[in-house]
């Protein structure tokens, strides 16, 4: 019964042979492994540590003569002139390119004092605000309650020229028509 058990069992009694063959294959492909700690030692037999080849002083001198990163001393005048010329061309090209202006789309809610406020006059007052970098868009009247309507007006501003505080301040100067100004929506373009 015990012998039948071993027939079906897959035990590697000679696994070290396969490990050695695999190690030799990779050593042929890549060279020997440096250091004995990386090598597998089979429990069935011991391996001798690999011999390390020591570099001679003449070989060390050859390695020190190679300058992998180059030095500033060896840079010739032609390469410096070429680099300066390319930098100048790049600067000129960049100067010609128009710069991107940051813009925002703002939806303002302008609230009147009461239901008797002339909304056409209110809108004319708001549109009379003219600032560099400000462009007025569409508007509509939105009911608030009790017959009162607010003016919703769209504008596009350049962020570096017109701030929201400045815009609100200019609109609220029309005290007889405007009660308050709120920002309903603010989107970067």
General description of the model:
- Residues 68-94 form the Elongation factor 1 beta central acidic region eukaryote domain.
- Residues 58-77 have a biased composition (Acidic residues).
- Pfam families: EF-1_beta_acid, EF1_GNE.
- GO terms for molecular function: guanyl-nucleotide exchange factor activity; translation elongation factor activity.
- The chain has a domain at 103-188: Alpha-Beta Plaits (2-Layer Sandwich), CATH 3.30.70.60.
- 37% of the residues lie in helices and 23% in strands.
- It is built from six helices and four strands; from the N terminus they run ααααβαββαβ.
- Strands 2-3-1-4 form a four-stranded antiparallel sheet, covered by helices on one side.
- Strand 2 (134-145) and strand 3 (148-158) form a beta hairpin.
- The longest helix has 20 residues, at 77-96.
- The termini are far apart.
Helix coverage percent: 25-40%
Identify low-pLDDT runs.
none
Could you say what the CATH topology of the domain at 103-188 is called? Alpha-Beta Plaits
User: Could you state the CATH homologous superfamily of the domain at 103-188?
Assistant: Ribosomal protein S6/Translation elongation factor EF1B
Order of helices and strands: HHHHEHEEHE
What summary fits the major beta sheet?
4 strands, antiparallel
Q: How much β-strand is present in the residues?
A: 15-25%
Helices, by number, come to 6
CATH architecture annotation of the domain at 103-188: 2-Layer Sandwich
Structural class: alpha+beta
